[in-house]
Here is the input.
Amino acid sequence: MKARYGMAIDLDRCTGCGACMVACASENNVPRLPKATERTGITPMLVHPVSDGKTGVAFIPMPCMQCEDETPCVKVCPQQAVELDRATGIVMQMPQRCLGCRYCMTACPYHSRYFNWWDPAWPAGMERTLNPGVAVRMRGVVEKCNMCHARLHAAEDKAAEAGKRQIEAADYVPACVESCPTGAIRFGDLNDGASEVAKASRTPEAFRLLARLGTEPKIYYTSKRAWVRALAERHPAGEPSQPAAPVAAGGGEVKHG
Amino acid sequence: MTSAATGVVMADRRLQVRGEARSSTARFALWLAPWVLLLALGIYAGGLCLYYGLNQTNMNNRFAFGLWIFLDLGIIALGAGAFFTGFLVYILGRTELKPVLNSAVVLGFICYSGAMAVLMIDVGQPLRAWFTFWHPNVHSMLTEVTFCITCYLLVLTLEYIPVVLRNRQLRKLPPFVVFEHRMHLLMPVLAGIGTLLSFFHQGSLGGLYGVLRGRPFAFRQGFAIWPSTFFLFILSAVAVGPSFLMLVTAAARKLTGRKLVPSNVFPRLGFISGVLLAAYVALKAVDTLIWLNVTSPAVGFAPWEYYAYKPFGTTLLFAEIVVFGLLPAVLLVQGRWLLPGAALACCGILLNRFVLTVQTLALPTLSFDPFLSYTPSWQEVASFGGVVAYGVILYSLSYRYLPLFPQSKEQTHVSGR
Here is the structure.
């Protein structure tokens, strides 16, 4: 049976600590870029702080939304460097084939794709901390969250060694999920109705960002707060003349871990 | 004068078009000098981008496309005069436009080769450009653009070769004369192929943005796999191509003090340009209304918000459709203010490409997104300045040594200049 991996992120539990961002960078060999700004850095997992303009604050962790349908980046890449893996539902990026045209970045409504503006570099000695299971990306190519695909490979290898065709759910957990101290990020197979993530995605508090675009993202968010749920769209259906109430904290600044 | 300088002057004179007065070698060198300097600066800036990477630009993860893409789309639209004039002359038999055909081919070659040069700097891994041919994604508009532009640049090169071979020194070599003659026989075929290729890549350039479901400001419904911007780009390009050709010819006429083309050419180009522009403006207005009232609200975006961020107010939309669309269309069809009309039309097409490339990226998509601005770095500006300089130099050299305006001599005699 094909899997459809996704996440359900409980925004009421997220404290904005940034551990997911650090874990992601560490797991995926994201280089240290001293000259990078918040608009040129590489943050496959990025936590956006938002406010309702009064006292309410929330943090929205944003990996790639892993769009299922009309996947904007897959459709536009001229040389098939991006593909939707139908066996897992994961949108894969192949930096080795990427031309660096950045058309996919233009197409992504979630701004979840990052260009390597600089050569990757680490301070002397830090190369020894790199994850051997993940290739370092070169300058001039685009990268994104691939749900820690190296961990999926490791889980598949483990299953194969044990003579199994299916991986154990516990063997494949992305770094951000593993590192979240409050357990806000739940991960699993959305096709498995009994999975925690599938159940969370069906609750009344669940929503997806910009779902009306029709790209069927597989990252769900949950919140009991109505103003947080209203962040899903710029304008709720039936209210096209009203702006969404919440605003980005600090004019849309992003938090770096 | 040193012997080397004398040699340059003699070579210059020997290469010039026979029987037509050209400025002195010194004066021509003086004209070229600033453009050569600008070209050198552009090559240096482009070299920096290639050597150190695109961190030399002010583009970023949110403004992943910048000045270069805007200008690429702009000059490719302006260069449409090349294929469209060829189509009018060879396919539709409008032979009265033949006097500007060579000039149109050179202009097209300059626009397309310049755009390709900038694109090679603009991509992060230029050495992987061939991957698009090896691993093409047939669903991507950029694949279609890449295929058609590459092929069309080849067609333009083939169309340029006979013009080059008509240089008076090259004509002394019999094989070249035979080859040139054979190439001329191929011209109608090349014009047809060029039209087909241009039709698709001009359209695909519009499609690039029209298919962006994630960018509701640019996203459009359309026919089959083609969004409406596909057709609007084709129509707008063929509308302004003749206008740009007219402007460049007028500039050359002013600079050289020669008449260059018969007096019926400009009104004819202006009329064609004006009629097509009027059709474009009408369709663009309909498209805008459908987009504002149907397409955009359906995906959760309120149209008023697109124009809530300065400087992208509704004034820009009005300017694009009326001031730089309807007004030049009337001027060009009427035929009395041809050059101002042509200039407005060219500005209009640039404004349209600017709006689609820059405003699309500046506008927020997520509810907690900020509005963004972007200012190009000097390397981006200088690289493109280098392309402009390359164009001026190549056009100047072509005018000096090749029969760019075959009827220039007789026209000058007729007008007594």
Summary: Residues 5-248 of chain A form a domain with the Alpha-Beta Plaits fold (CATH 3.30.70.20). Residues 238-257 of chain A have pLDDT under 50 and may be disordered. DSSP finds seven helices and eleven strands in chain A.
